[in-house]
Amino acid sequence: MIWLLLSACGGDKTEAVADCSTGEELTAVLNVVAYTRRKDGVVWGFNLDDHVSDDNDWEGCSHEDLIDPAGNEGIDNAFSGLIPALEATEASAVEDLIQDSVNNGELLLMVKLTGIDDFDNDDCVSLEFTRADGAPIMGTDGEMLDGQSFGRSEFPPYAYVEQTTITDGVVDVRGVPLFLPLQVLDVELEFDMPEGAVRLAVSEDGIMTGVFGGGVSNSDILRIVEEGDLGDIRELVTTLVTSAADLEPDEDGVCQELSVAFQFETTPAFFYGE
């Protein structure tokens, strides 16, 4: 499961607050969750430290920041640089396990936007991100069929942003605690991102794309190395993770977190009775 807790956006109480209660609503289920992959220094992600680092920058542990496909600089996504090496090891199982969990309903997540007056630019919409119950029906092509209904789960994640915006067709939320626990090789692997971010490209047909990510502590990622049966690749994975860490340098200038981002796609869906 993924645990997304999105803090409600607030403002000066003396100012008039826009009405988010009117307008259209849109509900969709995440049917694809995968790593973001880089090519020639370009990758989707976020500027998590609000800093543009070069390869001589102490704040980024001498890791040069990347650029996203929209041309934004300062992108922190060090994990994307490890993917080619990790895919040659048993650690490659993580991505497949995520998608398998989506397909069998163990990782059934839904997003709901309400109060939409304009799908391109809207100064006040509400966003809900929650876990759902149900077994998705898959098509013969292996894709989740759209238009299915699911129940609301009593388990986390549950997130609600009462007031956020759509800007140029995108909802962008920062400072969001994210939590993605997985079971890999009988080891609990946790992607715990206390200061995460979520970006969602809105589409009125319910087929939306997005990215979520944040900084994951080295110790969380290396738990699979410490407890799993990785044999000869143990030292390799440890070296890759610790050398790529690019966030939260300690007093010795050693970064304690690795930036990571996941991309997702949605398909139209509904909550029972809503």
Short structural summary:
15% of the residues lie in helices and 39% in strands. The protein has four helices and eleven strands; from the N terminus they run ββααβββββββααββ.
Strand order of the largest sheet: 2-3-4-5-11
Summarize the main sheet. 5 strands, mixed, barrel
Low-confidence stretches: 1-17
Tell me roughly what share of residues is in helical segments. 10-25%
Which of globular, elongated, flat, extended, rod-shaped describes the shape?
globular
Domains, number: 1
Count of DSSP H/I helices: 4
Number of strands: 11
Mean pLDDT: 81
Secondary-structure content class: mainly beta
Order of helices and strands: EEHHEEEEEEEHHEE
Give the percentage of residues in beta strands: 35-45%
What's the gyration radius in Å?
Answer: 19 Å
What is the end-to-end distance? 23 Å
